[in-house]
Amino acid sequence: MIDLTKISDPYERRARIYPGLICLFPIIITVFIVSPKIFHLWSSLAALAVSFGLLQLLAHIARDRGKYLEVMLLKEWGGMPSIRFLRFRDQTIPKPAKKRYHAILSEQTGIDLPSKELENDKPAEADEIYQSWSDYLRGKTRNSNKYPLVFKENVNYGFRRNIFGLRLLCLLAGIFCLVAIIAKGFQLYRTSATIDAPIAGTGVIVALYLCIFIFIINKQWVKLPADAYARQLLEALNA
């Protein structure tokens, strides 16, 4: 049975299931155009597979791949944005706003602000404090109705991180499908000496799909919503 409570969860659906379905997209349209008979058979099998939790499997694969690559991304970014923004040496947040955030977080959590000297001499120790503050903020803003902007940016980041985690699989699926479409197009051209419009159109769609994953979906594409999410977490202190 389909776990409707999971699918109806906006974060689960948009940040985890959608990336998995996007990975399958070129395969679905290619099979539909190249071999309609197989597509109808697959439709029946897919309905059966979904009933046994295929969507949840896709969601878990997308999440796990995203989490795996997140470790690498955070190292390149210098840590989680919600931690990085709180450091004295980071210039992303204006100093007056950062000073206010430091004071509020110290008061609300009971955890003293690390000194600049501690941050410079023992950055890992200072980051533990910022990590505690960041954890506090995430717990404080879990109510999506009260903090809709935080939730929105969290979903955006989760979606982009997870689709980036599936990037290699999506590229392989797109390349395989494009080769199959070209082969089918040549086969039809040899027999009829005409270009099949549906085949050509599908080829263009899959080619655009590949271009998106090659030129648009990259580390910077993931970093933008990560930073936006961190900003919204901090701005929730103004509420």
Structure write-up:
The structure is a single chain. With 239 residues, the protein is mostly helical. It has one domain (4-238). It has twelve helices and no strands. The protein has helices at residues 4-7, 10-34, 36-51, 54-77, 81-84, 95-109, 116-121, 123-140, 148-165, 167-192, 197-216, 219-235. Helix 2 (10-34) packs parallel to helix 9. The protein starts with a helix and ends with a helix. The relative contact order is 0.15.
In short, what is this structure?
The protein is mainly α and 239 residues long. Helix content is 81%, strand content 0%. α2 packs parallel to α10, α2 (10-34) runs antiparallel to α11 (197-216) and α9 (148-165) packs antiparallel against α12 (219-235).
Number of strands: 0
The low-confidence runs, each spanning 5 or more residues with pLDDT under 50, are none
Q: Whole-number radius of gyration?
A: 23 Å
DSSP summary: helix tally:
12
Distance between the termini: 41 Å
**Principal-axes shape call:** elongated
> What is the makeup of the main sheet?
none
What is the average of the pLDDT values? 90
* Number of structural domains: 1
**Helix and strand composition category:** mainly alpha
Q: Helical proportion?
A: over 70%
Question: How large is the share of residues in beta strands?
Answer: under 5%
* Element order: H for helix, E for strand: HHHHHHHHHHHH
